[in-house]
Amino acid sequence: MSGKRMDVAGLVRLESRIRVIQGVRSMVFIMFCASAGFLVVATAFPQKREMERLEAKLEATRENERRVVTEQEHRHIELRALREDPAYLEIQARDRLDYCQDGERVLRFRRDR
């Protein structure tokens, strides 16, 4: 029993140092996790903006495609009417060439384009 004996005051100081070291370690771990989280979020913002820009571009392209398909359908219907409907063909020809029959009254409306 000739070994070193620690008195109670020494044990209390040692325990308080251990608690301080554990608290500091916990704080460092929390700060590390928070900084890692901020880093992940900070790198996600440019990607989110790029994704929003690409989605807007995609929507504009889809709208343009819908417009083109509608125009194509209109042209297809008009072509079929010109080929198969003589009355429609007569109306179109008379309108373009400014022809009218005797005694016929033609009203013209201007379109704003």
Explain what the structure shows.
This protein has 113 residues and is an all-alpha fold. The protein has one domain. Helix content is 79%, strand content 0%. The chain contains 2 helices and no strands. It has helices at residues 8-84, 86-97. It is rod-shaped and about 130 Å long.
Q: What's the β-strand tally?
A: 0
Number of helices: 2
- Class based on secondary structure composition and strand pairing: mainly alpha
**Percent in helix:** over 70%
Q: How many structural domains can be distinguished in the coordinates?
A: 1
Quaternary organisation: single chain
Overall form: rod-shaped
Strand content: under 5%
Let me know the largest β-sheet.
none
The end-to-end span amounts to: 109 Å
Tag the structure with descriptive keywords:
rod-shaped; mainly alpha; 2 helices
How do the strands and helices of this protein lay out in sequence?
Blueprint: H1 8-84, H2 86-97
Overview in brief:
By secondary structure, the chain is mainly α.
